[in-house]
Specification:
This protein is mostly helical and 205 residues long. It contains ten helices and no strands. The protein has one domain: Tetracycline Repressor, domain 2 (Orthogonal Bundle). It is elongated, with a radius of gyration of 19 Å.
Length: 205
């Protein structure tokens, strides 16, 4: 998975995979069949670890609005390695030409949209952390678009202004029900959020 993530499918050779996995070619073929089958397995693994498991931790650790914002902050912090998101990278490289890959990628994006963004927005509206005037479906889709855009930008040189604009837009899309009444529960997240934004941006400038 790491080799595909860093190089992409087409640029990753069998020797790259052998070196990265620490196995010989015979073992690779015996276990996965071929490079393409290994790539599909890598996509499923990425979806399980870096999307489903990660988002589950986010929902348990943070309040709904904070969980969404923190997702973007984490993407900014990870931008330092220039690898971006494997699903987004794959969408750009292979999805237009490979229906099987496109299905896996679209399922991953749909999961983020419906099982994270929409659920967090609805939950936040119940608690008053997010205004009921926020259109859940369209806002979730907008957040997904911003996330994909951020992942694409993280593959290259991204300046401070762009990163700040993305985080500010996410915050603006999720206004509290009543800024005068609602207050966040005590947590290190809200106190350190400003620092994390700056820290994340500092890594990519």
């Amino acid at each position: 998975m790491i080799a595909f993530w860093g190089r992409g499918y087409n640029a990753t050779s069998l020797q790259d995979l052998v070196d990265c996995m620490g196995v010989n070619r015979a073992s690779l073929y015996d276990t996965f069949g071929d490079k393409y089958a290994l790539f599909l397995d890598s996509l499923y693994t990425y979806k399980s670890i870096y999307i489903k498991s990660y988002l589950a931790r986010q929902t348990k650790k943070y309040t709904p609005r904070q969980a969404i914002i923190n997702y973007f902050l984490d993407m900014i912090l990870k931008a330092e390695d220039r690898n971006g998101c494997l699903m987004v990278n794959t969408a750009l490289e292979l999805s237009p030409h490979d229906k099987k890959v496109a299905t896996i990628v679209n399922e991953a994006f749909a999961y983020i949209d419906k099982n994270f963004f929409r659920k967090m927005i609805k939950k936040g509206q119940v608690t008053g952390e997010i205004s009921e005037t926020v259109a859940c479906t369209t806002t979730a889709q907008t957040l997904l678009s911003l996330l994909i855009g951020l992942c694409v930008l993280s593959r290259g040189e991204t300046n401070r202004t762009v990163m700040q604009a993305i985080v500010s837009q996410v915050e603006a899309l999720l206004p509290p029900a009543d800024t005068k009444v609602f207050s966040y529960p005590p947590s290190r997240t809200s106190k350190n959020q400003g620092r994390r934004i700056q820290a994340g941006i500092a890594h990519v400038v």
